[in-house]
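User: My advisor asked me to double-check a structure prediction for Gfo/Idh/MocA family oxidoreductase before group meeting. I don't want to rely on an old file, so could you generate it fresh from this sequence?
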Amino acid sequence: MKNNPEKDNNIASNSNGDQRRDFIKKTLAGSALLTFGGILPGFSPKSYAKIIGANEKVRVGVMGVNSRGLALASNYALQPNCEVVSISDVDSRAAEKCIDKVNEIQKSKPANTPDFRKALENKDMDALVIAAPDHWHAPAAILASKAGKHVYLEKPCSHNPNEGELLIAAAKKYKNVIQMGNQRRSWPNVAAGIKEVHSGAIGRPYFVKGWYTNNRASIGVGKETAVPSWLDYELWQGPAPRRAYKDNLVHYNWHWLWNWGTGEALNNGTHMLDLMRWGLQVEYPNRVTSSGGRFRYKDDWETPDTQVINLEFDNNTAMTWEGRSCNGRTIEGSSVGVVFYGETGSLQISEGNAYTIYGLDNKVVKEVKNDFVIDPRNKMNPSQGLDALHIQNFFDAIKKGTPLASEIVGGHQSTLLAQLGNIAFRSGGTLNVDSSNGRIKNNKEAEKLWKREYQKGWEPTV
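Assistant: Sure, here is a fresh prediction for Gfo/Idh/MocA family oxidoreductase from the sequence you gave:
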């Protein structure tokens, strides 16, 4: 961004961030991977205490804590090698709730810093966790990178393809760690299932189907009204062109409005499209089509509530993602999942940390169930325990240079699949794509959607 984020708030310099990162790497070398609130099997509390630098903590700030951000802040606070030092939210109620929760967990109260740009001035803060609305994802991550911070960025990594390319440029320029929050990349049995696909368990995989289904209600027709006293609507909109406040926008319904959101394809589809791309070992497609619409209700919802995205690749493979926001009929017995189809069988990964292999006769060849053990003393959602593995991978990348489970280039590539689907839907035609970089070819109408307009003075720049 040009004016407000840097000049007005005097964000910490990149050199300060480099010094802090070097310190973290030195003091935390050799730390062990931890589970959500407990030690992984094979490590006792006594053995963990002997690890060099075990008491040094990665200090994080969290931006956007109304829903997903609250879960993330809690998860980070429960990590023994982490301290949540700052909470930033434009909703004062959400911030207070999250601060109380984090304080209860880690026994130290994070600072209430409504404007995350002020939080970035803290030279002792190592990383920013971003769970704000989609239109803020890339701009906030770029500002954090400029401030010398590492970034844990919830999916999708960007609102539009151009922002994804800016993120890659930022990571290259500022040499920080940017991990996208497609947590299944770190779930052990999901990774094992993908490895089975790669090793030939179903022969050569040539097609994969993914899906998401739900029974979301209508968002109605909003009325323009005064901005609530608890909401900083100007900062909430941030880089997005200004729109009048309506009573059905905040929170969550912004997902279905193009000015701020990206629809179900990026809201939930990104997770499955990432697994599909991972399994087929592809990067960019060469052809994309999409069909669908807002069919269920007549209201303010703009993005499709029903959508099919088809993508084809150079290695003679293809994938299809189906999203149904307002009809929850499951597919293959699951509300979310993927199925890889190969020459000798198929492999399904559904909601949890598990997979099943089927032969061409539809009989089960192998079934791997979730065997992830969580400390029984901790009452938690099992998926949060699994997600802690992704968080620890982020920490290991910061401390030891461990490869990320979801580095930003791959995060952009997976996000782009859904974005190209949305562009095909909105432009009403087939997209021919350069498979070397994901760029749209010879389609001026579609190419207009590669970027977005920004509120003057808030444009993200690397």
